[in-house]
Structure formats: structure tokens, C-alpha cells
Amino acid sequence: MSQLTFLITAAIVTGIIVGLTAYFPMQIPAIYSIILGFATFVTFFFVILWTNFVFMSRAGTQ
Fold it and tell me: I need a surface site. Which of 14, 37, 44, 53 has the fewest CB within 10 A?
């Protein structure tokens, strides 16, 4: 469970970093960078959940 918490935290941090990185060079409005960062976070979150579920189900069948 602590690993999942770490991965979620990493996804949030990645989303913030992506949002800020997109904001400075392109000078797009801040709301778009926030949306972009949030979309990145959501994508990472679902990928993490899916891989976690696959690994858990794989471990359960063995």
C-alpha cells in the first residue's frame, strides 16, 4: 500500500512538473497548464492502477 501511495505521489508531482514545464516556454494560460498537468496525473494514475491490478491478479492466480 505504501508503494501505491508513493506512485500516486510521483504521478501528482509529474503532473505538476509537466504543467509548469508547458507553462513557461509556451506562455499558455495557467488554466491550460493546470488542465494539462491534471490530465497527465489522471493518465499516470490509471496506468498505475491498471498495472497494479494486473500484478495483483497475476500474483493471486499463482
Answer: 53
Instruction: Name the nearest CA neighbour of 45 among 10, 18, 16.
Output: 10
pTM equals: 0.44
DSSP 8-state assignment for residue 22: H
The cell numbers describing 28, all together, are: 499558455
Contacts of 41 (CB under 8 A, 6+ apart): 11, 12, 14, 15
| CB 28, CB 22: distance < 8 Å | yes
Closest CA to 11 of 32, 51, 38: 38
Band (28; pLDDT cuts 50, 70, 90): low
